[in-house]
Design brief:
Elements: E1 20-23, H1 28-39, E2 44-47, H2 54-60, E3 64-66, E4 79-82, H3 91-99, E5 102-105, H4 106-114, E6 118-123, H5 128-141, E7 147-154, E8 159-162, E9 168-172, E10 187-190, H6 198-201, H7 204-216, E11 223-227, H8 231-242, E12 247-251, E13 258-266, E14 269-276, E15 279-286, H9 291-306, H10 311-319, E16 329-334, E17 337-342, H11 347-361, E18 366-371, H12 375-380, H13 382-389, E19 394-397, H14 413-419, E20 427-429, H15 436-443, E21 449-454, H16 461-477, E22 482-484
Parallel strand pairs: 1-2, 1-4, 2-3, 4-5, 6-9, 6-10, 7-9, 10-11, 11-12, 12-13, 17-21, 18-19, 18-21, 19-20
Antiparallel strand pairs: 7-8, 13-14, 14-15, 16-17, 16-22
Helix pairs in contact: 1-2, 1-4, 5-9, 5-10, 7-8, 9-10, 11-13, 15-16
């Protein structure tokens, strides 16, 4: 998608949008935007075809949800908002333009909501949802009451969006369609840069150039933050510094401005020591495991430091960080089997998540239920995705989730499962959603860890797995053995 399709952030405010209608309002990004507008007191409607969990919360806030897509949904509407997942010939989008209504891409509507605020924009190939959540909680702990829109839900807050009274606006900036280039951040944070969304960019060099352009849009009075441990982030820092811009870095690298050391990760969480410019900031702890979580949290510490917030607020917020839904989310236990859900679908984030889950599994086995996300990614990164899945002891693979994509011969999960380096009896491609719980119940043993991983729909599978495992236990012992949380 060409950035020229988007209008850069300007003087348009959320209040200027009037009555707002969002097409596909149940999606993660759209539901967060809808919630932001609703908590701001604006009239909001939306259309959807599936009863996503987020819809109940929108209705409770006064939103009108239409469970159809039709022209009548636009009656009385002033502004129609769509995402990149909505085709240009969608009937509501076509009707909105026929009626002469204001039509905005999600990012344009979000930019309007940021007008007049100090925007903290977090971008990157991996970790941006978790990092945005951490930064938000640090600002909340410091009493800043930021507005925020996140691509996931903070477990403790139970929301991915909020209209705050403070001067800061924290946003997860999406690079997938170049729409992050319309934002004008006060602080831009890039967690890492790796090959992804090459259907949009073509190659890594073009993707890196887009991240550099995003960073250059940062207010000259503000801050640019990158990860010194990430090769892409390091190259970006070198490029920007050569242009005379000051870049602040974090990581384990010896030359990082905020440096981590003595990182320890276990099933109980992660802890590390931090120092900035040679001055100790003390020890930081998170109740969620994974070295990558520690690295994400360090960027939140650096952000707080640059914004002049108390480092103690960052320490307290991170110590209480509950995680993000669909990011290492514990769904429950049934018949001695622990079930998690994880959003990772890129091989790097998959590897980090599965290595952490193996720590949690201990002496038990790790069973992965994976739904690949997008045909082009599954095709272009098949070897890397297969290698990541090889960390599992058992694999149950669903077909690729790729709305709007056309599958070519030889593409999809049937080819992927063959590439996974596991014995044939420890991996299986299951073509029907309804057959997955049966397959998992057949394979899982008490003490095992099962994780549903990948595209958005797989997040709904965890409850079905718990039910199947509980039914198995009930059949064996005459009672249910499932517990939530």
């Amino acid at each position: 998608m060409n950035t020229a399709q988007f209008t850069p952030a300007g003087t348009l405010t959320a209040e200027d949008l009037g009555r707002i209608h969002l097409i596909g309002v149940g999606g993660v990004g759209m539901s967060g935007l809808a919630r932001l507008f609703l908590t701001r007191g604006l009239p909001v409607s939306g259309s959807e075809l599936r009863e996503w969990p987020s819809l109940a919360g929108m209705r409770a806030l006064g939103g009108t949800i239409h469970m159809t897509h039709e022209a009548a949904n636009l009656d009385g509407v002033d502004t129609v908002v769509y995402s990149s997942a909505i085709p240009q010939d969608h009937l509501e989008l076509v009707e909105a333009r026929r009626r002469g209504l204001r039509v905005l891409h999600r990012s344009e509507a979000l930019a309007a909501a940021m007008t007049g605020r100090l925007t903290v924009a977090i971008a990157g190939t991996h970790g941006k949802t978790t990092t945005t959540s951490m930064v938000t909680m640090v600002l909340q702990q410091a009493g800043a009451d930021p507005s925020f829109v996140i691509g996931g839900e903070i477990s403790e807050v139970g929301s991915g969006a909020h209209h705050g009274t403070g001067e800061h606006f924290v946003v997860e900036a999406d690079e997938s369609d170049r729409s992050f280039l319309i934002y004008r951040p006060y602080l831009s944070l890039i967690t890492n840069i790796e090959a992804d969304h090459l259907n949009t960019y073509g190659d890594l060099a073009t993707l890196e150039a887009a991240f550099a352009e995003f960073a250059r849009l940062t207010d000259r009075r503000g801050f640019i933050v990158t990860c010194a441990d990430d090769p892409g982030g390091r190259r970006l820092a070198q490029t920007l510094r050569a242009e005379g811009r000051r870049v602040h870095t974090y990581g384990e690298a010896a030359d990082a401005d905020l440096r981590l050391s003595e990182i320890v990760s276990s099933a109980q969480g992660v802890r590390y020591l931090a120092e900035i410019d040679g001055r100790s900031l003390g020890e930081f702890r998170l109740p969620v495991p994974g070295r990558h979580m520690g690295l994400n949290s360090a960027s939140a510490v650096l952000t707080a430091y640059l914004l002049g917030l108390p480092v103690e607020a960052a320490e307290a917020a991170l110590a209480a960080f509950p995680g993000v839904r669909r990011r290492f989310e514990r769904k429950g236990v049934a018949d001695g089997v622990l079930v998690y859900d994880e959003y990772a679908y890129h091989p790097t984030s998959m590897t980090l998540a599965l290595q952490t889950l193996r720590e949690v599994a201990g002496d038990g086995r790790l069973i992965v239920v994976f739904q690949p996300y997008r045909l082009y990614r599954t095709r272009d990164l098949q070897a890397e995705i297969a290698a990541a899945l090889g960390i599992a002891d058992e694999l149950v693979l669903l077909e690729v989730f790729g709305p709007g994509e056309v599958r070519q011969p030889g593409e999809g999960s049937a080819a992927l499962v063959e590439a996974v380096p596991l014995p044939a009896d420890r991996k299986v491609f299951v073509g029907s959603w309804d057959d997955v719980p049966v397959e998992v119940a057949r394979r899982a043993r008490p003490g095992d860890v099962v994780v549903t991983m990948g595209a958005p729909p797989i997040s709904l599978m965890g409850d079905e797995l718990l039910a199947a495992l509980a039914a198995r236990a009930g059949n064996a012992a005459g009672g249910s053995a499932a517990t939530a949380g």
